[in-house]
Design goal:
110 residues; 4 strands; alpha+beta; 4 helices; four-stranded mixed sheet
Length: 110
C-alpha cells in the first residue's frame, strides 16, 4: 500500500507541471480523486466540458464522512484528461484498490 501514495504523488506532479486549461468548454476535462486513509479505496469524479467541480467533490467526500487524504483535482485538455483517467483507473485496480466513481454524486451542489 505504501507504493500507491507514491504512484499517485508522482502522477500528480507530472500532470500538475503542465499548464491546466481553466475554461469550462468542451475542450477540457476535470478529474478529482481522493484516497481513503483507512481503507483501500479511491474515490474519483471526472467531467468533460463543465465548470470547476472541485469544491463539490471535496464537499461530497466531507459530508459522506469519508476519512481520506486531501482531494486532488486537475483540469486538462480533453485528450490528456481522458488518457490520465484511463491510466489512473488501471493503476488503481492493479494496486488492488477499490475504485469508486462518484461523478454523478459530485455533480450535485452541496
Amino acid at each position: 500500500m505504501e507504493m500507491v501514495p507514491r504512484i499517485l504523488a508522482c502522477t500528480f506532479l507530472l500532470f500538475a507541471a503542465t499548464q491546466p486549461a481553466r475554461s469550462a468548454d468542451t475542450t477540457t476535462g476535470q478529474l478529482c480523486w481522493a484516497v481513503g486513509e483507512f481503507d483501500n479505496t479511491v474515490y474519483f469524479a471526472g467531467i468533460e466540458g463543465r465548470e470547476d467541480r472541485s469544491a463539490s467533490f471535496a464537499s461530497l467526500i466531507e459530508i459522506s464522512g469519508i476519512e481520506a487524504f486531501p482531494a486532488k483535482c486537475l483540469t486538462l485538455p480533453l485528450a490528456s484528461y481522458r488518457a490520465l483517467l484511463a491510466m489512473l483507473v488501471e493503476e488503481w485496480r492493479e494496486a488492488e484498490l477499490e475504485v469508486v466513481d462518484t461523478t454523478f454524486l459530485s455533480d450535485l451542489d452541496y
